[in-house]
Amino acid sequence: MNFTCNVDILKSALELLEVNEPGAHLSITAGAAQLHLRCYSDDGNFRIDHAIPARVDPPGKATIPLDTLSRVSSHAVGEALRFSHDEWHGCLDIEGDKHRHAVRTHAEKWQNPVLEELTDAPGYEVQAQQFGRALKSVLFASVQLSDSDEAKNRPFLTGALFHRQDGEERIVTTDGRRMAMATLPSTERPVDTETPVPMRAMPYAACMKMIDLIESLKSSVCSFRFTENAVGFEADGVSLSCLLPKGDFPDFRQVIEKASGTSLGINVNREELLWALTAIRLGDDDPYNRTEFRVSGEQLTVENSTRWGNSKACIPIQYEGTDTAAAFDARFIEEALLQTDAAEVMFWMRPEPIDPMRLELAQNFQYVVMPMK
User: Fold this and answer.
1) Quick one: 97 and 175 in the same domain?
2) Total domain count, the chain
3) pLDDT for residue 197
4) How many whole angstroms separate alpha carbon 35 and alpha carbon 108?
């Protein structure tokens, strides 16, 4: 196998293919005047495909560690890199104007056959930039990969659920104690039936890479394909496929419905509420950040009691109804408020202190927090 390609085009492609997955490999298939580059994880559950132009003669295939080619190309500027692969010796020779490298190749790692089935799966399109912003805004409410125990025990909560119904796209995340949901209009209206989408979340790492691709490519439209076990994403010739974690996502419709019934609406200035939550924090020793939210008259009082002492702050609100109070994790409220730039947000608190709180952070952006006992 011999091929030549422009180093700047190759660098751009490698940036798109870069993933935060352990043991990722790069498969290079040369043929038909192009290179088909595939980055995939060792477990075979995650891959990204991209093709770039190249002069090929003769065609062939080689697999190398992902970061190797990135390091080689980083030292070349505006030149053509020449590649030759000798399968017998197991090396990919890379030659630039002033440097030369011999990279060991190996047999292609096993890849999950489930991901190969996506080409025949039904698909649909969404507005890419709008979808990327919405996905980025709700990911904070999912289980973070830094919480290794939680991520290992409940992998189906480490990413985002995509749900399509009645001409709308819903993106939902949860960690079991809170839930965020963004709703977007679909670019395609349903005819007779909806495109089937499994009630299983796309993994966190795949969501982050999809956001990166949307921001890098600046595509106007992206598409999705789903099977029962996998999801595929494509934009501007770059495709991402991954296996969905085992375990069904919680019924978000039931959670939203429960938080919406007979609720008391409270209009709050977002900046004033952020100030109040920061002002009452005397120390960071309390792992639960238990803060009481108390509504009385036209005033919202937030109060903390820790080993440092007691602290409270009051802000004016627009509210008519009975007095109510409940305790919530203040960190969850603060994180949600930072995901929107709206001047005002709506709180929906139910009369009983054991009921969840619902926030309208912006148009089509809802957030539910479970109370603390």
Assistant:
1) no
2) 3
3) 75
4) 16
